[in-house]
Design goal:
- Helix content is about 40%, strand content about 15%.
- The protein is α/β, with parallel strands linked by helices and about 375 residues long.
- It folds into two domains: about 5-245, 3-Layer(aba) Sandwich (Aspartate Aminotransferase, domain 2), CATH 3.40.640; about 250-375, Alpha-Beta Complex (Aspartate Aminotransferase, domain 1), CATH 3.90.1150.
- The strands form two sheets. The chain has a seven-stranded mixed β-sheet with strand order 1-7-6-5-4-2-3, sandwiched between helices. It has a five-stranded mixed β-sheet with strand order 8-9-12-11-10.
- Helix 2 (about 50-65) packs parallel to helix 10 (about 235-245).
- It starts with a helix and ends in a 7-residue tail after the last helix.
- It binds pyridoxal-5'-phosphate.
Length: about 375
């Protein structure tokens, strides 16, 4: 079946007790034993497994085409579990991209996890650099494409080949592309991580993360044990909300992508804009690879305003419809000055604004940007 259909049906059927087409939310923490002491429903205690969580995990695994999905209380909890659960035969060394979700850098800099793993950072669009970095024993090669906030495109299948020759586990953060636009397992990934908080939830009203394992294997078993025993689990309501979001993921992604393309085209012709980072523009360095490994180019873009930090901040402050806030993937268009959010270690240019293109009408978004960009003086 196609992903559009799986997103609506996988893992779910009408409720057997009531006929309800939409699943009920199971708040009970505990489930009744049969006379012989067994658990006929398959559920025992909600930290171990819960009906709403199981529905979400079944659907997410089906959508990505993996054997198993394991969900956690946030995207970062899922990412932490992936790194911590790396089986012991793998070297304690991570190869990370230079442009990636800033939370992972903070996780390694500010918690004890950083002390437990060596790190190397490369520009993963430079395949020679990836090859050279993989010469040292490596446990995990972490791919994020499109990347945050520069929208770099990494060639998943080539990087996965290099990583596998070095014996490393290949993890792809598929949050920005979603399973609708990019199929990392078909390109060689071993694990896929998601902040379901973003496009899959889709409405900026829940935090939840997930990992999908292509083969259940040892890493998958370790992740399941981490979920169960370390206990960073999402609530049944959050699992239910994530599944509800999943049901409209495909049409929402189509709308995010077409709005983002319209805005990228508008911005790239604007005299107050010095650069637009959107992989759907033919002059983007990743356009060729993105055209091959994605079915559309996504709803995220960033752009550089002529001038510096002050000018970028002024544009963000002048917008009336597009909201100045962090995060992405919801119905509302959001804009953010990443350098000030990420602090001194940021690699984002000072004149860069990141835009999560929402589901408003493209013409209203373009009009808002056009008016806000008037605050940048034109060269006479
Ligand atoms: C938001 C995000 C995360 C972290 O997810 P949380 O749910 O906020 O913990 C990880 N990766 C990417 C690409 C993200 O955008």
């Amino acid at each position: 079946m196609h992903p559009e259909t799986l997103a609506i049906h996988a893992g779910r059927k009408s409720d057997q007790a009531t006929g309800a087409v939409t699943a009920p939310i199971h708040l009970s923490t505990t489930f009744e034993r049969a006379a012989d002491g067994s658990f006929p429903s398959g559920f025992e205690y909600s930290r171990d497994d819960n009906p709403n969580r199981r529905m979400l995990e079944t659907c997410l695994a089906a959508l990505e085409g993996g054997e198993e999905a394991i969900v956690f209380s946030s995207g970062m909890a899922a990412i932490t579990a992936v790194i911590e659960s790396l089986p012991p035969e793998h070297p304690r060394r991570l190869l990370l991209p230079d442009d990636m979700y800033f939370g992972i850098r903070s996780l390694l800099n500010e918690t004890d996890l950083g002390a437990r793993f060596d790190r190397a950072v490369v520009d993963m669009t430079d395949l020679d650099a990836v090859e050279a970095a993989c010469a040292a024993p490596t446990g995990i090669v972490w791919i994020e494409t499109p990347s945050n906030p520069l929208l770099k495109i990494v060639d998943i299948s080539t990087v996965a080949d290099i990583a596998h020759r070095a014996g490393a586990v290949v993890v792809v953060d598929n949050t920005w592309a979603t399973p609708l636009l990019q199929r990392p397992f078909e390109l060689g990934a071993d694990l896929i991580v998601h902040a379901l908080t973003k496009y899959i939830g889709g409405h900026s009203d829940l935090m939840i993360g997930g990992v999908v394992a292509r083969h259940a294997g040892r890493h998958g078993a370790a992740l399941r044990a981490a979920q169960k025993h370390k206990g960073a689990i999402p609530s049944p309501f959050e699992c239910w909300l994530a599944l509800r979001g999943m049901q409209s993921l495909a049409p929402r992604m189509n709308a995010h992508c077409s709005n983002a393309m319209a805005i990228a085209k508008f911005l790239s012709g604007h005299p107050a804009v010095s650069a637009v980072h959107y992989p759907g523009l033919p002059d983007h360095p990743g356009f060729g690879i993105a055209s091959e490994q994605m079915t559309a180019f996504g709803g995220m873009l960033s752009f550089e305003v002529k001038g510096g930090r002050a000018e970028a901040m002024k544009v963000a402050a002048s917008l009336k419809l597009i909201t100045r806030a962090t995060s992405l993937g919801g119905t509302h268009s959001l804009i953010e000055h990443r350098a000030s959010v990420e602090g001194p270690e940021t690699r984002a240019p000072e004149n860069l604004l990141r835009l999560s293109v929402g589901l408003e009408h493209a013409q209203d978004l373009v009009a808002d940007l056009q008016e806000a960009l008037e605050c940048i003086p034109r060269p006479s």
